[in-house]
Amino acid sequence: MRVTLLDTGRMTIDRSQVLWNVDCGTKLWFPIYAVLVEHPDGLFLFDTGVDPDHVRAAFPWERIEQTPEQRLEAQLRSAGASPDDVTHLVNSHLHFDHVGANRLLRGARTFVAEAELRAARAPQPFEALAYSDRSFEEASAFELLEGDVELAHGLRLYATPGHCAGHYSLLVDGDAEHRSMLFTFDAAYSLENLEREIISGFHLDPIAATESIRRLKALAAEHDAELFVAHDLPAFAGYRRAPDAYELSGVPA
Amino acid sequence: MRVTLLDTGRMTIDRSQVLWNVDCGTKLWFPIYAVLVEHPDGLFLFDTGVDPDHVRAAFPWERIEQTPEQRLEAQLRSAGASPDDVTHLVNSHLHFDHVGANRLLRGARTFVAEAELRAARAPQPFEALAYSDRSFEEASAFELLEGDVELAHGLRLYATPGHCAGHYSLLVDGDAEHRSMLFTFDAAYSLENLEREIISGFHLDPIAATESIRRLKALAAEHDAELFVAHDLPAFAGYRRAPDAYELSGVPA
Q1: Do B14 and A26 touch (CB under 8 A)?
Q2: Do A206 and B202 touch (CB under 8 A)?
Q3: Which distant-in-sequence residues (6+ apart) come within 8 Å of B218 by Cβ?
Q4: What is the mean pLDDT of each run of 10 residues along chain A (253 residues)?
Q5: Hey, which CATH number is domain B2-247, 3.40.50.300, 3.90.79.10, 3.60.15.10, 3.30.450.40?
Q6: Which residues in chain B come in under a pLDDT of 70?
């Protein structure tokens, strides 16, 4: 397997939205990325990043940066692929910053948690902005998942709800070359969410979200996994990004 | 009946904690008050305000102001009563800014929602600070309530959970002299929470909290009630406060 992180830009957020009720009024930059996995069964993409035009229209009080090189098609090219090569797309959830380029992946089988699609179609009032990029409806014919799912050998989705109704985190099995990789997606924006067990300021169910943080910590310990959090600029600076990648030979550790 | 608002001080809060995720970084002053009702069946007190020593220790990043005249005993005196005169105490919920002087009311029968006492004794991690004034445990032998309750003729408690596990709002029946009075307590910190149907930044269950805001709006409409919100300084400035009071003759409207 080869795992490539695709950097699709960054936007601003309040630190109290990363860490609920902490340091209100401190603006942070927030990286947004997708994960590409070349696998014997196909080319798997997890999330599609953000549409900056949507952000400018829906969140005019935030700043967004996406260079031409950060558009998803350019990022895929940098990883040696084109949108048409992607066979499987998984949306960790359906918030605007995870579905922004679903429209490019019409040829891929597309997966999402069943509870998430239902929630996105009838959001709570406080979730309306998070689900405001509706382009996935026209772009994607979702296959619906429930509970933990082994998507392919060595690629497992773990249900980590609370941030929203249905949410998946991704475990990529490690090998002799590299430890397992645990992509938390928005169940943990930052390492600090995990360390302090504080959920993000955007959430549907704070109790479930707290349980999901604990589940991620337990999974990381159980699998000796390296943690890849969703929206932590200092942590992101330390990750390999396209065209660089994590190469996994598949030889057991 | 005579209804007297007891001003027990004020502290600072972020506007995004009054209105979830709105205007992060804007500090506001937050009034804290209790409600005294002289009723043929006894002297009823709703909430007991805040203990500033507790706030200084537990929330050192916030400012608190409580003058000697704003201590609960002084406020009761201003309303012509002493702590020993209070026959019934109701805590709308058990957050620190609603239980700060329960210790003065040991002689009163004391009521709280059953779900609230249970939650306060085993809080979620994100609720630990809200329940950090534990003095109610030693001060109060609670009688536990469930669902909507007619506490006495013309004094009704409505279950409005979501901000926390168990929460009551209070409706005082009006008469020819004055409209009914609906005290939202923390189910609505401010009028803006009601108008925009946005819950406060501190909450246990956002869906239930949103439903409670809608319930309060429906109750206010149904009973043509004047709304008294919990923590809105401009609104509070327009309320009569001890020694002034709302006099209700009991003659039907």
Answers
A1: no
A2: no
A3: none
A4: 97 97 96 98 98 97 97 98 98 98 97 98 97 96 98 97 98 92 98 98 98 98 97 97 93 73
A5: 3.60.15.10
A6: 253
- DSSP, residue by residue, B160-214: --SSSSS-EEEEE---SSS--EEEEETT-SSHHHHHHT---SS-S-HHHHHHHHH
Choose, out of B16, B24, B30, the residue to mutate when testing the contact with A (most A CBs < 10 Å).
B24
Of A103, A109, A180, which is closest to residue A135 (Cα–Cα)? A103
A193-A171-A119 Cα angle (round to 5): 65
Name the architecture of domain A2-241: 4-Layer Sandwich (3.60)
From the list B14, B124, B198, which residue is nearest A207 (CB)? B124
Q: What is the distance between the alpha carbons of residues A208 and A167, in angstroms, rounded to a whole number? A: 11
Active-site entry in B51, B97, B133, B186:
B97
Reading across the β-sheet that carries B155-159, which strands appear in turn? B149-152, B155-159, B168-172, B181-185, B226-229
Q: Are the CB atoms for B139 and B173 separated by under 8 Å?
A: no
Residue in this structure with the two tokens 């904690």, named with its chain if needed: B17
How many beta carbons lie within 10 A of that of residue A83, not counting itself?
Answer: 19
ipTM for the assembly: 0.93
User: In chain A, which residues have their Cβ closer than 8 Å to the Cβ of B26?
Assistant: 25
Report the DSSP beta bridge partners of residue B220.
Answer: none
Measure in Å the smallest separation between the Cα of B179 and chain A Cα atoms. Answer: 31
Q: Can you give the pLDDT at residue A195?
A: 98
* pLDDT at residue number B115: 98
- B70-124 pLDDT, tens digit per residue, is 999 999 999 999 999 999 999 999 999 999 999 999 999 999 999 999 999 999 9
Q: Does B97 participate in catalysis according to the annotation? A: yes
Domain ranges of chain B: 2-247
Query: Residue A253: its pLDDT value, please?
Result: 67
pLDDT digits 0-9 by tens, A55-100: 999 999 999 999 999 999 999 999 999 999 999 999 999 999 999 9
Rounded to the nearest 5 percent, the helix, strand and coil shares of chain B are 30, 30, 45
- The span from the CA of B61 to the CA of B66, in Å, is 16
For residues A56 and A64, the answer to whether their CB atoms sit within 8 Å is yes
B123 vs A contacts (CB less than 8 Å): none
* pLDDT value of residue B177: 80
Q: In Å, how far from its chain's centre is CA A149?
A: 16
Count the neighbouring beta carbons within 10 Å of the beta carbon of residue B149. Answer: 16
Three-state secondary structure string covering A89-136: EECCCCCHHHCCCHHHHCCCEEEEEHHHHHHHHCCCHHHCCCCCCCHH
Q: What is the pLDDT of residue A252?
A: 74
Q: Which residues contact A223 (CB under 8 A, 6 or more apart)?
A: A171, A173, A174, A180, A182
